[in-house]
Specification:
single chain; alpha+beta; three-stranded antiparallel β-sheet; 2 helices; 35% helix; globular
């Protein structure tokens, strides 16, 4: 199975799930960045896997086909509270 076929299968499976069942990012910086991407970029992002320092998301309405994206805390500015 090619990479494109694997991604297409993942898209079909995720599309059948209720978005409210997607895991919420446990890292507040990552959660804030995902909210920004949704608001500013108008992207439809579905969280597939949450980890303390990164999440894997499926972008359903990209310019071409759906694609996977990793949002990592390593690439975000550190904010102090």
């Amino acid at each position: 199975m090619s990479e494109a076929e694997v991604l297409a299968t993942a898209v079909r499976i995720v599309a059948q799930r209720d978005p409210s069942e997607d895991p919420a990012p446990s890292n507040p910086q990552i959660a804030a960045r995902i909210a920004e991407l949704r608001k500013e970029g108008g992207l439809v992002l579905r969280v597939l896997k949450d980890q303390p320092d990164a999440v894997i998301v499926l972008v359903e309405n990209g310019e071409d086909d759906p694609f996977l994206m990793v949002v990592s805390a390593d690439h975000l500015p550190i904010t102090k509270h």
